[in-house]
Each structure stands twice: as C-alpha cells, then as structure tokens.
C-alpha cells in the first residue's frame, strides 16, 4: 500500500533551486534509501519533506496532503526528521531530550511506556538518563536523536546521514536497530546515506539523486546490481 507520495517536488534556498521535479513513492512500512553524490540534493529533499524549507509540488502521507505545512504541523501528522548532525540539545539530559520528542502528544502514562520502548532499542540510553546529551559519544548521540524522534510515534521517519562520523561497528549496530524498528513498528523510513552498502542492505527500494533529479529508481536489489551504482557508490564492477 502506497504511503508516501511525492510529485514534481521543487525546492531550494533563496534563488538557488536544488530539487527539480522530484517524484517518488514509498510503500507503508518500507525502508527507502536515497543515494547520490555530495550536493545532489539529498538533504534538501528531507528538509522539504519535513517542512523545514519551502517547496512546490505535492507531498501526501497516507492520503493526507502535507504540501506547504510548517514543521510543527507535519510533526503532528506523523513526520519525524533526524537531521544530519543529530540535532540533540546538548545542555539537556538524555531524559529531557527524549521527553521533548513527545511534545506533539498529550501527556499520559503511555509516555512512560514509550520511554521503556526506546530503552529496549537503545539500552545504553537508560544508563545515561541523567547525563547531559553533550557528554555522550557520537554513536550514543545518534541513538538519542533517533530515540527522540520515535517518542513522537511517527508514521514517517526521515534519517539524514545516520552513519556520519561513526565507527563501522557502531554504524552496523545502528542500522540493525533501524531495521528492527521498521520490522516491529512498521514505521516507514526514508534514509539518506553515503554508505550505500548498509543502506541497500536494509532497504526495500532506492532512488539515486544527481543534481536535484532522480536518475535511477528500483528495488534495493536492482539498484545494487546496476553497474553505474556499483562503480560510483559500492566500489566494484558488476
């Protein structure tokens, strides 16, 4: 069942247009990988989907029109964005960061259950609840950023370069957890990632962006088998 539908999306900064008529669809409960070189427009795409920048075109989620709405409205519609660089509130504690993730929801006992749910995915955060977020390692901060996003119980989770600056072992564990979240909660995920091997390893479908346009789309297996992608992003020839 189609969940996210993007049609003829254009966006940019000031007079500089970055996205040129991007269109894609993502099924409910799927993981979609967005690949491409630096400057291709991948981050801009996620910012447009979460309302951080103005965009033209059409974006619908579960049939609801999200086009042109501000970030707080989209958060209430079930869109959670984990930006590049994590975006955690460094002076606040881990627990305060997590609770801030639920600001769009009504207070109640279910929030405590959700904290336990996040600790299940990221046990290390439970041992760091009273620590300032700025004292965490890079991997722990990324876990906190994803955990905070999950506290809003999103229908669509946008991840921008989750492996940035992390050790390979930490990155693999992080992607394993993202895959588990998707499988257990059926959360639709769109992930922008330079590590194409890992992204394609957990995704059902993928799109390749170049200069603000989608130049290749298909299942993760099809994209992995494409010779151009293999040479440019995976480091081998088909």
Automatic annotation (TrEMBL):
Pfam families: ABC_tran. Keywords: Amino-acid transport, ATP-binding, Nucleotide-binding, Transport. GO terms for biological process: L-amino acid transport. The keyword ATP-binding applies. Residues 4-236 form the ABC transporter domain. One of its GO terms (molecular function) is ATP binding. It comes from the Bacteria. The keyword Transport applies. This is ABC transporter ATP-binding protein.
């Amino acid at each position: 069942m189609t969940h996210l539908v993007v049609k003829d999306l254009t966006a940019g900064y000031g007079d500089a247009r970055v996205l040129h008529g991007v269109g894609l669809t993502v099924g409910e409960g799927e993981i979609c990988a967005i690949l491409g070189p630096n400057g291709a427009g991948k981050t801009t795409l996620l910012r447009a989907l979460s309302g951080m920048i103005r965009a033209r075109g059409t974006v619908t989620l579960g049939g609801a029109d999200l086009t042109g709405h501000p970030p707080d409205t989209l958060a209430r519609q079930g869109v959670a964005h984990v930006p590049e660089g994590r975006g955690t509130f460094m002076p606040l504690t881990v627990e305060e960061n997590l609770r801030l993730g639920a600001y769009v929801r009504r207070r109640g006992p279910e929030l405590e259950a959700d904290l336990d749910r996040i600790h299940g995915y990221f046990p290390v955060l439970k041992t760091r609840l009273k620590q300032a977020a700025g004292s965490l390692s890079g991997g722990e901060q990324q876990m906190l950023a994803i955990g905070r996003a999950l506290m809003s119980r999103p229908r669509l989770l946008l991840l921008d370069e989750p492996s940035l600056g992390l050790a390979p072992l930490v990155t693999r564990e992080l992607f394993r957890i993202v895959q588990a979240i998707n499988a257990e909660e059926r959360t639709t995920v769109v992930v922008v990632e330079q590590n194409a091997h890992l992204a394609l390893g957990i995704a059902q479908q993928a799109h390749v962006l170049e200069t603000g346009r989608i130049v290749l789309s298909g299942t993760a297996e099809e994209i992995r088998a494409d010779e151009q992608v293999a040479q440019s992003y995976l480091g081998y020839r088909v």
